[in-house]
Specification:
Oligomer: single chain
Largest sheet: 7 strands, mixed
Order of helices and strands: EHEEEHEHEHEHEEHHEEEEEEHE
Shape: elongated
Radius of gyration: 23 Å
């Protein structure tokens, strides 16, 4: 059995979420022979400045070899990857791998996924768990196979979601726990103690929930179709990024985009408002509230298009509000 210093590991990841697991491996003395990350991203008004991914920045700071393929099936990249002679590959928040890549190392390729598989397969599992009002989520390590997020599970850790948590809170919690789980998984693979479980054999209550990528239109608030609780969960499931949004309509018909970062809910069980009443704004005790189907959603923090993010009380101090505004 190889020691961790001898095991040749290739690590694949891109965003901040993936840095913590790489940091745990590096600081734990594991042998990282290469880091694969996305190509540098153009930023700025003219897209003329290239920004390295958080994983690349960390890797370079610690003298690790970095590869940034445009295409994962490119023969030149595959030759470089083979030359690293990895025993094991680890993937954290990267991209879908072709079989020629994930099947390359003798010990396989495992992924850290920010959900309790088989639930929330897809690109945005943390967002969707909070949006759906889940009270529990977690992290999973599993070996890759053909279909995305379907491989045999190695280990899982469950994590509670408080009603006051937003996606940023849960993200940070899972990121830190993920680093520990990745090193534990490597240790168990080295020790030969891994006993994987096929996902189809795992007990799941109710239907499986998907976790597709979040787009701008995904973030639009549905005042007519959602309850107060669902609207509240929707906002915190997208806060602080990319943020839920709606349109603020003035009495004269002028419409502005309004991002909503934080709310609290007032549920009125005996209320069922007609459509024409839903979305009306009102001010009460210095706070801003929106009429919903079964109560009120109080907006605590927001950002009007072209303005900075601010508390609702600060917004109201600089906003002429005549009571005929609504959101839609």
């Amino acid at each position: 059995m190889k020691k961790k210093e001898e095991l040749r590991i290739v690590y694949m990841g891109t965003p901040e979420f993936a840095v913590e697991s790489l940091r745990c491996l590096v600081e734990g003395g594991y042998n990282i022979v290469g880091v694969i990350t996305m190509p540098d991203k153009p930023i700025g008004r003219h897209q003329d400045t290239l920004q390295a991914s958080p994983v690349k920045q960390y890797a370079l700071e610690h003298g690790l070899r970095v590869l940034q393929p445009e295409k994962l099936k490119d023969e030149a990249f595959l030759a470089e990857l083979r030359a690293l002679q990895a025993d094991l590959q680890i993937v954290v928040a990267f991209r879908m791998l072709p079989e020629v890549v994930w099947s390359m190392p003798p010990l396989g390729t495992f992924n850290l996924h920010a959900a309790l598989l088989p639930q929330y397969r897809g690109a945005a599992p943390i967002n969707w768990a909070v949006i759906n009002g889940e009270t529990e989520t977690g992290i999973t390590t599993f070996f890759l196979q053909h279909d995305i997020d379907t491989g045999e599970v190695i280990q899982q850790v469950k994590v509670p979601i408080a009603d006051t948590d937003n996606v940023g809170d849960v993200y940070d919690r899972l990121m830190m726990l993920g680093g520990k789980l990745v090193t534990e998984t490597v240790d168990n693979i080295l020790a030969g103690t891994v006993r994987t479980i096929p996902q189809e054999q795992m007990q799941v209550e109710g239907p499986l929930h998907p976790a597709p990528k979040i787009f701008k239109e995904t973030c639009r608030m549905d005042w007519l179709g959602k309850s107060v609780k669902q609207l509240y969960d929707f906002v915190r499931g997208l806060s602080p990024y990319p943020a839920a949004w709606t349109e603020l309509e003035a009495p004269d018909g002028k419409v502005q985009m309004l991002k909503v970062y934080s709310t609290h809910k007032e549920v009125c069980p005996d209320v069922s408002r007609p459509d024409e009443e839903i979305g009306k704004l009102s001010v009460e005790n210095g706070g801003l509230k929106v009429a919903a189907r079964d109560g009120y959603l109080w907006i605590d923090e927001l950002q009007l298009a072209g303005k900075k993010r601010m508390k609702a009380a600060d917004f109201l101090r600089g906003f002429r509000f005549d009571g005929n505004y609504r959101v839609r």
